[in-house]
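Q&A log
Question type: sequence-to-structure
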Amino acid sequence: MSSGQQAFLLEESDQSPDIFSLNVGSLPPGESASIRLEYVIELAVQADDGLRFCLPAVLNPRYQPEGSEGSSVQVTSVPASLVPYTLSFSARVFSPRRVSKVESNCSLDLIQYLNTEQTQATVKLAAGHKFDRDVELLIYYKDAHQPSAVVEAGQASAQPGTLMGDPVVMLSLYPEFPQAVMSSVASCGEFVFVIDRSGSMGSAMHDSNRRETRIGSARDTLLLLLKSLPMGCYFNIYSFGSRYQYIFPESVEYSEQTMEEALKKVEEMDADLGGTEILEPLKHIYSQPCIPSQPRQLFVFTDGEVGNTKEILDLVKENSGSHRCFSFGIGEGASSALINGLAKEGGGHAQFIIGSDRMQPKVMQSLQFALQPAVKDISVTWNLPKGLSVTVLSPPITSIFQGQRSLIYAQLMGQSPEAAAEGCVIVKYSLADHPTQNQLRFSPKPAGDTGLTVHRLSARTLIRSLEMKERERRQQQDEGVKRKVVELSVQSGVSSSFTAFIAVNKGDNKAIQGPLLHRKVPTARIHCGSMMAVQCYTGQALGRSPLSLSAHTRVPIRTGKRALLFRSTTDYLESNVVEEDMLKEPHRDPLLQLVFLQKASGCWLLKPALAAALGKTSEELENPKPSVVNEEVWATILALIWLHGFKSDVRDEWELLAMKAVSWVCAQKAPCVTACVEAGNALLGCKVQKDSLGI
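Response status: OK
Response body:
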């Protein structure tokens, strides 16, 4: 650079594939540099069928446990109000079906449709983004659960027989399970909940409610989870920071006694365990023998501020045969590599809770997935026209959930003489000992020019699988896998842990006059219970003197945007000091008051606390009770009526515990249930039908 040439270097973090370091130089005085980064990502399907795209604007410090491989990055941050740049963002949405709406956690300008079919649209971020949150888009379109196939032509300049030279197909499958199987909920399982209690969990969940902290929301969610577990299962709760704790030395059978003991410990949980070391508690959990006939289900809650992501994911993959892992990223800046990786390698499901999202409905959806019958013996069969063969690029499917998408990438080779011939993919599996299959027919003829997006997504999928295989074989000094990763990365233009983007602009080769200054581009910083930093975007950087720029960026693997993403933070600091307006936890809302009173068996007791939760006096609750009905049945029916009558908008949060209550009522074979429902409606001012209660 001192000779007048200009250079660009972008390389992936050793520990986390969602963090990149970027260096640019040199810039003569008064000159500017414009940097364009392109990246691709699979959009996650949400519980309400929306597709989630996240442009990361927040990156919290990553805690690097002592003894971990690699080192943490030290960069510079300033208060959010002092960042020397702004963010502009626009998105163009293409869909084979009508785009019904686009929502965001940030202010958007009105959506603009580009055609009469409304299959193309543009949306723009309103001016004045404050760098206090990720930019999230939720895209909704018609028939979201319709299976589909996209066949993309290969690159004309690439060699036939290579990944980039042949057509690639991307299959989106949405398995539908038989209703007879789905109507039953598993009554067994070992449920292990792992809660982050690092200092950053004392931060507010979102700006609109500064009193609700991440750890407070996690406590409320644990309450719902514990009340929703089926009788006969086993459970335990771990919490971690710089050290870890557990409630029971080993998982215990779910009962009224063990549930109450766990709830008392949960009420005492706070964000007071220091750093974020998740590896050790996971090692301890995996060292515990599995309980026969009780499939292990792991639920991990964290704000994702770890620096040893690859070590953690390798451990989860190593133990993937003995459990399923459901992960939850809490708050802005949670590591997408960690949260998505835990679920992918653990055969579970990932959820992100940001902005004004409520944690409870997303977690309860995952519990419903965990209670679904386990899918076994998954196989994929391809039936292609004569002359065509296929090489599957995706890892084998290890988990399938009702209504959730499964993606398969494959390379198509050869030529078919029949232009109109169709291909077919059949997915077979065993569900609760019932053989089941789903199939998708598609045309193997490539569509028009799609910019090689599907090829690069498939390359990314294959690269990640090979990188994990390379780490597994590292001690064997096997260089073959590494060479394959490098070859695929260079061929596809998709980065890897063994490659970097390097560019040199030779310019006029005039030597730099004067000293070459090194300038770090600052990012925004916010304080919410612990020192955190915000990741920021800029389109250009101005040089006032000969300048070398360095920044750290969390980039691929998302989708194409023409902006440079800078990461910066001060030295990592954990703090248990919280803001004054967050010292008092909010009063528990009526729903949680009612849930707290439910017994492990599913019933409620007719006590003053129940009357208070329902907004009545003890006498008002007791007087209308039919004389032949016992108090527990009456109290439980009242609770069910109240849930259906007043909390139908958050049904996802209480549906499982209500099912348990219904099962308990039915088991009592109580008389006069219809009379109870009528009297309960009159007392509570509801019009809930007996059939809708399920009793």
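Response note: The first helix runs from residue 179 to 182.
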